[in-house]
Amino acid sequence: MPPLEESSIEELLTTLYLALRLLLRPAEVEEIDAQFVECLERELHALMRWAADSLFAIWLRRMLSGSELQTRAIAARRASCAHGWRHKGHRGVKLELLGGHHFKLKVAYGAPGRPTAHKRTKRGKDQGHQRTPVLEVLGFVDHQSPALAAELLESSSACESLQAARQQLHTRGIVRTSAQLQRTTHRAAWMLREHLERWMQQPRQEGPLSQAGLAGRRVVLTFDGGRLRERLAHRGRKKANGYRNFSTSWVEPRLFVAYCIDEQGRMDKGFERITHASLAGPDELFAQLHGMLSTLQLEQADEVIVCADGQHWQWKRIETMLERLGVESSRIHLVLDMGHALAHLHKVAEIRSGYGKERKAWEKEGRKLLKAGRIEELLEHGKLLARGPRAPAITTAMKYFEKHKHRMDYPALRAAHRPTGSGVVESMIRQVINMRLKGCGKFWLREHAQNMLMLRAWLKSRRLSDLYRYAHTQRVHWWYKHAETPEDSQHALAS
Protein backbone atom coordinates (compact mmCIF):
# COMPACT_ATOMS: atom_id res chain seq x y z
CA MET A 1 0.00 0.00 0.00
CA PRO A 2 1.22 3.56 -0.64
CA PRO A 3 2.50 5.41 2.45
CA LEU A 4 0.20 7.84 4.21
CA GLU A 5 0.82 11.46 3.33
CA GLU A 6 1.24 14.05 6.05
CA SER A 7 -1.92 16.15 6.28
CA SER A 8 -4.25 17.90 8.68
CA ILE A 9 -7.52 16.56 10.03
CA GLU A 10 -9.43 19.07 7.90
CA GLU A 11 -7.71 17.91 4.70
CA LEU A 12 -8.29 14.29 5.64
CA LEU A 13 -12.01 14.82 6.26
CA THR A 14 -12.37 16.66 2.94
CA THR A 15 -10.67 13.84 1.05
CA LEU A 16 -12.79 11.28 2.90
CA TYR A 17 -16.00 13.18 2.08
CA LEU A 18 -15.16 13.32 -1.64
CA ALA A 19 -14.22 9.65 -1.71
CA LEU A 20 -17.48 8.68 0.00
CA ARG A 21 -19.54 10.74 -2.44
CA LEU A 22 -17.79 9.02 -5.32
CA LEU A 23 -18.32 5.55 -3.87
CA LEU A 24 -21.95 6.10 -2.86
CA ARG A 25 -23.04 7.68 -6.11
CA PRO A 26 -26.43 6.53 -7.47
CA ALA A 27 -26.28 3.42 -9.62
CA GLU A 28 -28.58 2.07 -12.31
CA VAL A 29 -30.87 -0.74 -11.18
CA GLU A 30 -29.49 -2.97 -13.95
CA GLU A 31 -25.94 -2.62 -12.51
CA ILE A 32 -26.85 -3.76 -8.99
CA ASP A 33 -26.25 -7.42 -8.18
CA ALA A 34 -24.54 -9.46 -5.48
CA GLN A 35 -21.06 -8.85 -6.90
CA PHE A 36 -21.65 -5.08 -7.05
CA VAL A 37 -22.81 -4.97 -3.42
CA GLU A 38 -19.85 -7.07 -2.24
CA CYS A 39 -17.32 -4.86 -4.04
CA LEU A 40 -18.93 -1.69 -2.67
CA GLU A 41 -18.84 -2.99 0.90
CA ARG A 42 -15.18 -4.03 0.60
CA GLU A 43 -14.20 -0.65 -0.87
CA LEU A 44 -15.96 1.15 1.97
CA HIS A 45 -14.11 -0.94 4.55
CA ALA A 46 -10.78 -0.30 2.80
CA LEU A 47 -11.53 3.42 2.79
CA MET A 48 -12.35 3.39 6.50
CA ARG A 49 -9.10 1.53 7.25
CA TRP A 50 -7.21 4.24 5.35
CA ALA A 51 -9.07 6.97 7.26
CA ALA A 52 -8.43 5.30 10.63
CA ASP A 53 -4.72 4.87 9.92
CA SER A 54 -4.48 8.46 8.71
CA LEU A 55 -6.17 9.81 11.84
CA PHE A 56 -3.91 7.71 14.05
CA ALA A 57 -0.82 8.95 12.17
CA ILE A 58 -1.95 12.57 12.60
CA TRP A 59 -2.54 12.03 16.32
CA LEU A 60 0.86 10.36 16.78
CA ARG A 61 2.72 13.14 14.98
CA ARG A 62 0.97 15.82 17.02
CA MET A 63 1.51 14.02 20.31
CA LEU A 64 5.24 13.53 19.77
CA SER A 65 5.80 17.06 18.52
CA GLY A 66 3.71 18.78 21.15
CA SER A 67 4.61 16.92 24.35
CA GLU A 68 7.66 16.10 26.45
CA LEU A 69 7.23 12.35 26.05
CA GLN A 70 10.33 11.92 23.88
CA THR A 71 12.47 13.99 26.25
CA ARG A 72 11.32 12.03 29.26
CA ALA A 73 11.78 8.69 27.46
CA ILE A 74 15.39 9.63 26.67
CA ALA A 75 15.97 10.72 30.27
CA ALA A 76 14.54 7.44 31.59
CA ARG A 77 16.62 5.41 29.15
CA ARG A 78 19.76 7.33 30.13
CA ALA A 79 19.07 6.74 33.82
CA SER A 80 18.57 2.99 33.24
CA CYS A 81 21.90 2.49 31.42
CA ALA A 82 24.94 1.84 33.58
CA HIS A 83 27.21 3.76 31.20
CA GLY A 84 24.75 6.46 30.20
CA TRP A 85 22.93 6.91 26.93
CA ARG A 86 23.88 9.22 24.07
CA HIS A 87 21.18 11.15 22.26
CA LYS A 88 22.08 11.30 18.55
CA GLY A 89 19.26 13.48 17.28
CA HIS A 90 16.17 12.58 15.23
CA ARG A 91 15.65 10.28 12.27
CA GLY A 92 12.79 9.12 10.09
CA VAL A 93 11.34 5.72 10.90
CA LYS A 94 8.87 3.86 8.69
CA LEU A 95 6.00 2.49 10.78
CA GLU A 96 3.05 0.25 9.90
CA LEU A 97 -0.43 0.58 11.39
CA LEU A 98 -3.36 -1.78 11.98
CA GLY A 99 -5.00 -1.01 8.63
CA GLY A 100 -1.87 -2.08 6.74
CA HIS A 101 -0.69 1.43 5.80
CA HIS A 102 2.82 2.84 6.32
CA PHE A 103 3.91 6.30 7.34
CA LYS A 104 7.17 7.99 8.28
CA LEU A 105 7.73 9.55 11.67
CA LYS A 106 10.72 11.47 13.03
CA VAL A 107 11.72 10.24 16.46
CA ALA A 108 14.66 10.72 18.78
CA TYR A 109 17.25 7.96 18.77
CA GLY A 110 20.53 7.18 20.44
CA ALA A 111 22.82 4.46 21.76
CA PRO A 112 24.42 3.31 25.03
CA GLY A 113 27.16 5.57 26.29
CA ARG A 114 29.98 3.05 26.02
CA PRO A 115 30.48 1.81 22.46
CA THR A 116 29.82 -1.91 22.23
CA ALA A 117 29.57 -4.31 19.33
CA HIS A 118 26.03 -4.97 18.13
CA LYS A 119 25.22 -8.50 19.23
CA ARG A 120 22.49 -10.83 18.10
CA THR A 121 21.10 -13.26 20.62
CA LYS A 122 19.68 -16.66 19.80
CA ARG A 123 16.21 -15.13 20.03
CA GLY A 124 16.40 -12.88 16.99
CA LYS A 125 17.02 -9.14 17.13
CA ASP A 126 18.41 -8.29 20.50
CA GLN A 127 16.86 -4.99 21.53
CA GLY A 128 14.06 -4.10 19.09
CA HIS A 129 13.25 -0.38 19.47
CA GLN A 130 15.80 0.19 22.23
CA ARG A 131 17.56 2.79 20.07
CA THR A 132 14.27 4.71 19.70
CA PRO A 133 13.01 4.75 23.31
CA VAL A 134 9.74 6.58 22.68
CA LEU A 135 8.58 3.87 20.23
CA GLU A 136 9.44 1.22 22.80
CA VAL A 137 7.40 3.07 25.41
CA LEU A 138 4.45 3.34 23.01
CA GLY A 139 4.52 -0.41 22.40
CA PHE A 140 5.80 -0.58 18.81
CA VAL A 141 7.32 -3.94 17.87
CA ASP A 142 9.54 -4.24 14.77
CA HIS A 143 8.18 -0.90 13.45
CA GLN A 144 4.61 -2.18 13.88
CA SER A 145 1.96 -0.50 16.00
CA PRO A 146 0.90 -2.32 19.20
CA ALA A 147 -2.51 -3.24 17.78
CA LEU A 148 -0.97 -4.58 14.56
CA ALA A 149 1.66 -6.61 16.44
CA ALA A 150 -1.04 -8.15 18.65
CA GLU A 151 -3.20 -8.89 15.58
CA LEU A 152 -0.34 -10.66 13.78
CA LEU A 153 0.49 -12.70 16.87
CA GLU A 154 -3.11 -13.79 17.45
CA SER A 155 -3.81 -14.64 13.80
CA SER A 156 -0.68 -16.73 13.32
CA SER A 157 -1.38 -18.71 16.49
CA ALA A 158 -5.17 -19.02 16.00
CA CYS A 159 -5.10 -20.33 12.42
CA GLU A 160 -4.06 -23.87 11.55
CA SER A 161 -1.09 -22.67 9.47
CA LEU A 162 0.79 -19.54 8.44
CA GLN A 163 -0.82 -19.74 4.98
CA ALA A 164 -4.29 -19.60 6.53
CA ALA A 165 -3.21 -16.68 8.73
CA ARG A 166 -1.89 -14.83 5.66
CA GLN A 167 -5.24 -15.19 3.90
CA GLN A 168 -7.12 -14.02 6.97
CA LEU A 169 -4.88 -10.97 7.38
CA HIS A 170 -5.07 -10.16 3.67
CA THR A 171 -8.84 -9.60 3.97
CA ARG A 172 -8.05 -6.91 6.55
CA GLY A 173 -5.55 -5.16 4.28
CA ILE A 174 -2.44 -6.56 6.04
CA VAL A 175 -0.10 -8.11 3.47
CA ARG A 176 2.65 -10.48 4.65
CA THR A 177 4.71 -13.28 3.16
CA SER A 178 4.96 -16.52 5.12
CA ALA A 179 8.58 -15.75 6.02
CA GLN A 180 7.72 -12.26 7.28
CA LEU A 181 4.80 -13.55 9.33
CA GLN A 182 6.89 -16.36 10.81
CA ARG A 183 9.71 -13.98 11.71
CA THR A 184 7.36 -11.47 13.34
CA THR A 185 5.48 -14.18 15.24
CA HIS A 186 8.54 -15.84 16.70
CA ARG A 187 10.23 -12.57 17.65
CA ALA A 188 7.14 -11.50 19.58
CA ALA A 189 6.75 -15.01 21.05
CA TRP A 190 10.35 -14.99 22.27
CA MET A 191 9.69 -11.73 24.07
CA LEU A 192 6.54 -13.12 25.71
CA ARG A 193 8.22 -16.38 26.61
CA GLU A 194 11.25 -14.69 28.14
CA HIS A 195 9.14 -12.60 30.51
CA LEU A 196 6.77 -15.50 31.28
CA GLU A 197 9.62 -17.82 32.26
CA ARG A 198 11.20 -15.08 34.36
CA TRP A 199 7.88 -14.55 36.16
CA MET A 200 7.45 -18.27 36.88
CA GLN A 201 10.91 -18.32 38.49
CA GLN A 202 9.94 -15.49 40.88
CA PRO A 203 6.92 -16.58 42.93
CA ARG A 204 4.66 -13.95 44.50
CA GLN A 205 5.64 -11.34 41.91
CA GLU A 206 3.07 -9.35 39.91
CA GLY A 207 2.40 -11.25 36.71
CA PRO A 208 -0.01 -11.96 33.86
CA LEU A 209 -2.27 -14.08 36.12
CA SER A 210 -2.39 -11.69 39.06
CA GLN A 211 -6.18 -11.30 38.72
CA ALA A 212 -6.77 -15.07 38.68
CA GLY A 213 -6.36 -15.97 42.35
CA LEU A 214 -7.34 -19.49 43.46
CA ALA A 215 -8.01 -18.69 47.13
CA GLY A 216 -11.39 -19.96 48.36
CA ARG A 217 -12.13 -21.96 45.19
CA ARG A 218 -12.55 -25.62 44.27
CA VAL A 219 -9.60 -26.11 41.94
CA VAL A 220 -9.06 -28.97 39.48
CA LEU A 221 -5.54 -29.63 38.17
CA THR A 222 -5.21 -31.91 35.13
CA PHE A 223 -2.21 -33.15 33.16
CA ASP A 224 -1.69 -34.98 29.90
CA GLY A 225 0.74 -35.26 26.98
CA GLY A 226 0.44 -34.90 23.22
CA ARG A 227 2.65 -35.58 20.21
CA LEU A 228 4.41 -33.56 17.54
CA ARG A 229 7.26 -34.13 15.09
CA GLU A 230 10.59 -32.46 15.77
CA ARG A 231 12.76 -31.30 12.87
CA LEU A 232 16.27 -32.63 13.23
CA ALA A 233 19.38 -32.16 11.09
CA HIS A 234 19.52 -35.86 10.18
CA ARG A 235 18.85 -36.97 6.62
CA GLY A 236 19.02 -40.38 5.04
CA ARG A 237 20.73 -41.71 1.94
CA LYS A 238 20.06 -40.11 -1.42
CA LYS A 239 17.51 -41.84 -3.62
CA ALA A 240 17.86 -42.46 -7.36
CA ASN A 241 16.05 -39.21 -8.17
CA GLY A 242 18.54 -37.18 -6.12
CA TYR A 243 16.22 -36.51 -3.17
CA ARG A 244 16.65 -37.77 0.36
CA ASN A 245 14.11 -39.37 2.64
CA PHE A 246 13.38 -37.38 5.76
CA SER A 247 12.16 -38.88 8.99
CA THR A 248 12.29 -37.82 12.60
CA SER A 249 11.03 -38.93 15.96
CA TRP A 250 7.92 -37.91 17.85
CA VAL A 251 8.32 -35.78 20.96
CA GLU A 252 5.82 -35.38 23.79
CA PRO A 253 4.72 -31.87 24.76
CA ARG A 254 3.14 -31.83 28.20
CA LEU A 255 -0.01 -29.87 28.94
CA PHE A 256 -1.34 -28.60 32.26
CA VAL A 257 -4.83 -27.15 32.79
CA ALA A 258 -6.25 -25.61 35.96
CA TYR A 259 -9.93 -24.71 36.24
CA CYS A 260 -12.49 -24.18 38.98
CA ILE A 261 -15.79 -25.91 39.70
CA ASP A 262 -18.82 -24.88 41.77
CA GLU A 263 -20.52 -26.80 44.57
CA GLN A 264 -22.44 -28.92 42.04
CA GLY A 265 -19.26 -29.94 40.21
CA ARG A 266 -19.98 -27.77 37.15
CA MET A 267 -17.23 -25.65 35.63
CA ASP A 268 -17.12 -22.15 37.12
CA LYS A 269 -17.89 -19.83 34.19
CA GLY A 270 -16.55 -16.83 36.10
CA PHE A 271 -13.01 -18.19 36.08
CA GLU A 272 -11.13 -18.63 32.81
CA ARG A 273 -9.05 -21.79 32.78
CA ILE A 274 -5.28 -21.57 33.06
CA THR A 275 -3.28 -23.56 30.51
CA HIS A 276 0.45 -24.14 30.30
CA ALA A 277 2.15 -26.25 27.60
CA SER A 278 5.84 -27.06 27.40
CA LEU A 279 8.42 -29.35 25.84
CA ALA A 280 10.43 -29.18 29.05
CA GLY A 281 11.24 -32.31 31.02
CA PRO A 282 9.08 -33.31 34.01
CA ASP A 283 11.31 -31.71 36.66
CA GLU A 284 11.56 -28.39 34.79
CA LEU A 285 7.82 -28.41 34.06
CA PHE A 286 6.86 -28.88 37.70
CA ALA A 287 9.37 -26.21 38.75
CA GLN A 288 7.56 -23.79 36.43
CA LEU A 289 4.14 -24.86 37.72
CA HIS A 290 5.32 -24.44 41.31
CA GLY A 291 6.14 -20.78 40.66
CA MET A 292 2.85 -20.18 38.85
CA LEU A 293 0.61 -21.88 41.44
CA SER A 294 2.48 -20.23 44.30
CA THR A 295 1.67 -16.83 42.83
CA LEU A 296 -1.99 -17.87 42.43
CA GLN A 297 -2.11 -18.86 46.15
CA LEU A 298 -3.18 -22.45 45.56
CA GLU A 299 -2.53 -23.25 49.23
CA GLN A 300 -5.58 -21.13 50.13
CA ALA A 301 -7.97 -23.06 47.88
CA ASP A 302 -10.88 -24.84 49.55
CA GLU A 303 -10.22 -28.03 47.59
CA VAL A 304 -7.52 -29.22 45.20
CA ILE A 305 -8.55 -32.08 42.91
CA VAL A 306 -5.83 -33.62 40.75
CA CYS A 307 -7.11 -35.66 37.80
CA ALA A 308 -4.64 -37.36 35.44
CA ASP A 309 -3.88 -40.64 33.73
CA GLY A 310 -1.46 -43.31 34.95
CA GLN A 311 1.80 -42.00 33.48
CA HIS A 312 4.68 -42.62 35.84
CA TRP A 313 6.19 -39.11 35.61
CA GLN A 314 3.19 -37.33 37.11
CA TRP A 315 1.91 -38.54 40.44
CA LYS A 316 4.99 -38.45 42.67
CA ARG A 317 5.94 -35.02 41.36
CA ILE A 318 2.38 -33.74 41.81
CA GLU A 319 2.29 -34.80 45.46
CA THR A 320 5.74 -33.31 46.09
CA MET A 321 4.74 -30.01 44.45
CA LEU A 322 1.52 -29.70 46.49
CA GLU A 323 3.45 -30.46 49.68
CA ARG A 324 6.01 -27.75 48.87
CA LEU A 325 3.19 -25.29 48.14
CA GLY A 326 1.78 -25.88 51.62
CA VAL A 327 -1.56 -27.40 50.57
CA GLU A 328 -3.06 -29.40 53.45
CA SER A 329 -3.35 -33.11 52.66
CA SER A 330 -6.98 -33.14 53.87
CA ARG A 331 -7.92 -30.78 51.01
CA ILE A 332 -6.15 -32.80 48.29
CA HIS A 333 -8.07 -35.39 46.28
CA LEU A 334 -6.22 -37.52 43.71
CA VAL A 335 -8.26 -39.01 40.86
CA LEU A 336 -7.19 -41.44 38.16
CA ASP A 337 -9.05 -40.57 34.98
CA MET A 338 -11.80 -43.17 34.53
CA GLY A 339 -11.50 -43.11 30.75
CA HIS A 340 -7.85 -44.14 30.89
CA ALA A 341 -8.63 -46.80 33.49
CA LEU A 342 -11.34 -48.33 31.27
CA ALA A 343 -8.98 -48.23 28.28
CA HIS A 344 -6.32 -50.05 30.29
CA LEU A 345 -8.86 -52.68 31.31
CA HIS A 346 -9.63 -53.27 27.63
CA LYS A 347 -5.90 -53.71 26.91
CA VAL A 348 -5.67 -56.28 29.69
CA ALA A 349 -8.55 -58.22 28.11
CA GLU A 350 -6.85 -58.13 24.72
CA ILE A 351 -3.73 -59.79 26.09
CA ARG A 352 -5.68 -63.01 26.47
CA SER A 353 -6.14 -64.36 22.95
CA GLY A 354 -8.51 -67.12 21.88
CA TYR A 355 -10.87 -66.56 24.79
CA GLY A 356 -13.94 -65.55 22.75
CA LYS A 357 -17.17 -64.68 24.53
CA GLU A 358 -15.67 -65.39 27.93
CA ARG A 359 -13.13 -62.58 27.46
CA LYS A 360 -15.87 -60.10 26.52
CA ALA A 361 -17.94 -61.20 29.52
CA TRP A 362 -14.84 -60.76 31.74
CA GLU A 363 -14.29 -57.22 30.44
CA LYS A 364 -17.98 -56.31 30.90
CA GLU A 365 -17.93 -57.46 34.50
CA GLY A 366 -14.60 -55.68 35.07
CA ARG A 367 -16.06 -52.40 33.82
CA LYS A 368 -18.93 -52.68 36.31
CA LEU A 369 -16.53 -53.30 39.20
CA LEU A 370 -14.30 -50.42 38.13
CA LYS A 371 -17.13 -47.90 37.86
CA ALA A 372 -18.45 -49.05 41.24
CA GLY A 373 -15.03 -48.46 42.81
CA ARG A 374 -14.69 -52.11 43.91
CA ILE A 375 -11.02 -52.36 43.06
CA GLU A 376 -10.19 -55.27 45.38
CA GLU A 377 -12.88 -57.35 43.67
CA LEU A 378 -11.52 -56.21 40.28
CA LEU A 379 -8.07 -57.51 41.23
CA GLU A 380 -9.56 -60.87 42.19
CA HIS A 381 -11.56 -60.82 38.96
CA GLY A 382 -8.29 -60.35 37.06
CA LYS A 383 -6.97 -63.67 38.34
CA LEU A 384 -9.70 -65.46 36.36
CA LEU A 385 -8.12 -64.16 33.15
CA ALA A 386 -4.50 -64.78 34.18
CA ARG A 387 -4.24 -68.34 32.96
CA GLY A 388 -2.15 -70.02 30.30
CA PRO A 389 1.10 -68.83 28.71
CA ARG A 390 0.07 -65.14 28.85
CA ALA A 391 -0.73 -65.18 32.55
CA PRO A 392 2.48 -63.29 33.58
CA ALA A 393 1.71 -60.45 31.13
CA ILE A 394 -1.87 -60.20 32.45
CA THR A 395 -0.69 -60.21 36.07
CA THR A 396 1.79 -57.42 35.32
CA ALA A 397 -0.87 -55.34 33.55
CA MET A 398 -3.29 -55.74 36.48
CA LYS A 399 -0.73 -54.13 38.80
CA TYR A 400 -1.86 -50.83 37.26
CA PHE A 401 -5.09 -51.06 39.28
CA GLU A 402 -3.21 -52.15 42.42
CA LYS A 403 -0.95 -49.10 42.13
CA HIS A 404 -3.77 -46.58 41.63
CA LYS A 405 -6.58 -48.12 43.71
CA HIS A 406 -6.55 -45.24 46.26
CA ARG A 407 -7.28 -42.85 43.36
CA MET A 408 -10.26 -44.80 41.96
CA ASP A 409 -13.07 -44.36 44.50
CA TYR A 410 -15.45 -43.13 41.81
CA PRO A 411 -18.76 -43.44 43.74
CA ALA A 412 -17.41 -41.21 46.54
CA LEU A 413 -16.09 -38.73 43.98
CA ARG A 414 -19.46 -38.52 42.24
CA ALA A 415 -21.25 -38.09 45.57
CA ALA A 416 -18.97 -35.14 46.44
CA HIS A 417 -19.50 -33.59 42.98
CA ARG A 418 -15.86 -34.04 41.99
CA PRO A 419 -14.78 -34.89 38.42
CA THR A 420 -13.86 -38.47 37.57
CA GLY A 421 -12.46 -37.76 34.10
CA SER A 422 -9.93 -35.46 32.46
CA GLY A 423 -12.03 -34.44 29.48
CA VAL A 424 -10.99 -30.79 29.85
CA VAL A 425 -7.30 -31.47 29.31
CA GLU A 426 -8.08 -33.94 26.50
CA SER A 427 -10.02 -31.19 24.75
CA MET A 428 -7.16 -28.74 25.25
CA ILE A 429 -4.67 -31.28 23.84
CA ARG A 430 -6.71 -31.25 20.63
CA GLN A 431 -7.06 -27.46 20.53
CA VAL A 432 -3.52 -26.52 21.57
CA ILE A 433 -1.43 -29.27 19.95
CA ASN A 434 -3.31 -31.39 17.45
CA MET A 435 -5.05 -28.61 15.51
CA ARG A 436 -1.90 -26.47 15.12
CA LEU A 437 1.32 -28.41 15.67
CA LYS A 438 0.44 -31.97 14.69
CA GLY A 439 -0.32 -32.87 11.08
CA CYS A 440 0.95 -34.40 7.85
CA GLY A 441 4.23 -32.83 6.83
CA LYS A 442 4.53 -30.67 9.96
CA PHE A 443 8.01 -30.74 11.51
CA TRP A 444 9.06 -28.21 14.13
CA LEU A 445 12.32 -26.81 15.38
CA ARG A 446 12.26 -27.22 19.12
CA GLU A 447 12.41 -23.49 19.87
CA HIS A 448 9.62 -22.69 17.40
CA ALA A 449 7.46 -25.52 18.76
CA GLN A 450 7.89 -24.21 22.31
CA ASN A 451 6.90 -20.71 21.19
CA MET A 452 3.75 -21.93 19.43
CA LEU A 453 2.80 -24.17 22.36
CA MET A 454 2.94 -21.16 24.66
CA LEU A 455 0.91 -18.97 22.27
CA ARG A 456 -1.77 -21.61 21.67
CA ALA A 457 -2.10 -22.45 25.37
CA TRP A 458 -2.66 -18.82 26.35
CA LEU A 459 -4.84 -18.12 23.33
CA LYS A 460 -7.22 -21.04 23.98
CA SER A 461 -7.57 -20.02 27.61
CA ARG A 462 -8.42 -16.45 26.50
CA ARG A 463 -5.42 -15.02 28.32
CA LEU A 464 -3.03 -14.16 25.45
CA SER A 465 -3.86 -10.45 25.61
CA ASP A 466 -3.04 -10.44 29.36
CA LEU A 467 0.33 -12.05 28.67
CA TYR A 468 1.03 -9.58 25.85
CA ARG A 469 0.30 -6.56 28.05
CA TYR A 470 2.41 -7.96 30.89
CA ALA A 471 5.37 -8.65 28.57
CA HIS A 472 5.21 -5.10 27.21
CA THR A 473 5.16 -3.67 30.74
CA GLN A 474 8.26 -5.71 31.61
CA ARG A 475 9.90 -4.72 28.34
CA VAL A 476 9.78 -1.04 29.32
CA HIS A 477 10.42 -1.54 33.03
CA TRP A 478 13.06 1.21 32.79
CA TRP A 479 10.29 3.69 31.87
CA TYR A 480 8.19 3.00 34.96
CA LYS A 481 11.27 2.90 37.17
CA HIS A 482 13.15 5.97 35.93
CA ALA A 483 10.41 8.32 34.62
CA GLU A 484 10.30 11.65 36.43
CA THR A 485 7.11 10.74 38.30
CA PRO A 486 5.00 7.58 37.96
CA GLU A 487 1.82 9.65 37.69
CA ASP A 488 3.22 11.76 34.87
CA SER A 489 4.52 8.75 32.93
CA GLN A 490 1.19 6.93 33.17
CA HIS A 491 -0.65 10.10 32.10
CA ALA A 492 1.69 10.59 29.14
CA LEU A 493 1.09 7.03 27.92
CA ALA A 494 -2.69 7.38 28.26
CA SER A 495 -2.95 10.86 26.73
Give an overview in words.
The chain is of the alpha/beta class. Among the domains are: 218-234 and 247-334 and 426-448, 2-Layer Sandwich (Nucleotidyltransferase, domain 5); 339-407, no CATH class. Helices cover 51% and strands 12% of the residues. It has helices at residues 9-23, 34-66, 69-80, 133-138, 146-158, 162-170, 178-200, 282-295, 315-325, 338-351, 356-371, 375-385, 391-403, 410-415, 423-434, 446-460, 464-475, 477-482, 486-494; strands at 85-96, 102-112, 218-225, 228-229, 250-251, 254-261, 274-278, 303-308, 332-336. The strands form three sheets. Strands 7-6-3-8-9 form a five-stranded mixed β-sheet, sandwiched between helices. Strand 8, helix 9 (315-325) and strand 9 form a beta-alpha-beta unit. Helix 5 (146-158) crosses helix 6 (162-170) and helix 8 packs parallel to helix 9 (315-325). It is elongated and about 90 Å long. Mean pLDDT is 86; it is low at 121-127 and 486-495.
